[in-house]
């Protein structure tokens, strides 16, 4: 399968140091510039990811590529929460053609790649 991600607005959601769902929600809210009324729960995150009216400037016209980085420690510490987060990201991307969510492997801490095997 091939995706054309040319010219998409790229937003990084860095999860380095995130230890729980509240931290994940805060990082998503900050990185995506979500409004103050963002509910900081799974349903609110799913709705916000799919709602073009709350996207960062330029994302509606260009599409949005969210890159989740340094997620390994969070995934190990909170595997059930991480599984839910992945489901939310996948569902939102699946129903919103202009949205792509990618999990970065490697990076400065390399915490994501060691989960693969």
Helix and strand arrangement:
Elements: E1 9-14, H1 21-31, H2 42-50, H3 59-62, E2 64-69, H4 72-77, H5 79-95, E3 99-103
Parallel strand pairs: 1-2, 2-3
Helix pairs in contact: 2-5
Describe this structure in words.
The chain has helices at residues 21-31, 42-50, 59-62, 72-77, 79-95, and strands spanning 9-14, 64-69, 99-103. Helix 2 (42-50) packs parallel to helix 5 (79-95). The radius of gyration is 14 Å and the shape is globular. It is of the alpha/beta class and 117 residues long. The chain has a three-stranded parallel beta sheet. The protein contains five helices and three strands; from the N terminus they run E-H-H-H-E-H-H-E.
Biggest beta sheet summary: 3 strands, parallel
| Main β-sheet, spatial strand arrangement | 1-2-3
User: Which stretches of 5+ consecutive residues score pLDDT under 50?
Assistant: 109-117
Total E-strand runs? 3
Q: SS-based structural class?
A: alpha/beta
Features:
117 residues, alpha/beta, three-stranded parallel β-sheet, 15% strand, disordered C terminus
